[in-house]
Amino acid sequence: MIEVIEVKEQHRESVGEERLNNLQTREKRAVHSPALNDEAEFEFTPLFESRVAEQFRAHWLKIQSRFVDDPLTSVKAADDLVITVIENIVSTIAENRMTLEDQWSRADQASTEDLRRTLKRYRSFFNRLLSVGS
């Protein structure tokens, strides 16, 4: 069980670094290209960076391989891993929503065109949320 806690902490640290990098990248993009092409769909960051997803998969394989020797511990570790993945998804989605909110929260400075683009981004975000469960 100690190993699961250590792995969860490692995931949280690496995920935290990835999120900081993502936020910095988004800020740079916003400064260099404030308006998106009208034809382009607003793109959100992946729910997981590929490195983080691979860490989750590797951890899953370890859990699965230990099942024969200790089924109960494997199931508990699987539950912990699923909780960590869900927390990661919720955090990523919350960050995406905050990015959208930042685009319109200064409504006195936003033109109707800016608000129209933001609404399109909300539509894209909404559709992405609905596709997560599909």
Could you tell me the number of beta strands? 0
Shape: elongated
The overall pLDDT average reads 76
Largest sheet: none
The run of helices and strands is: HHHH
Q: Helix proportion of residues, in percent?
A: over 70%
The first-to-last residue Cα distance is 32 Å
Radius of gyration, taken over Cα atoms and rounded to an integer in Å? 19 Å
Number of helices: 4
pLDDT < 50 stretches: 26-40
Beta-strand portion reads under 5%
Structural category:
mainly alpha
Give a written overview of the molecule.
This protein is mostly helical and 134 residues long. The chain has a domain at 48-134. Helices cover 76% and strands 0% of the residues. The protein contains four helices and no strands. Helix 1 (2-32) runs parallel beside helix 3 (71-104) and helix 2 (50-65) runs antiparallel to helix 3. Mean pLDDT is 76; it is low at 26-40.
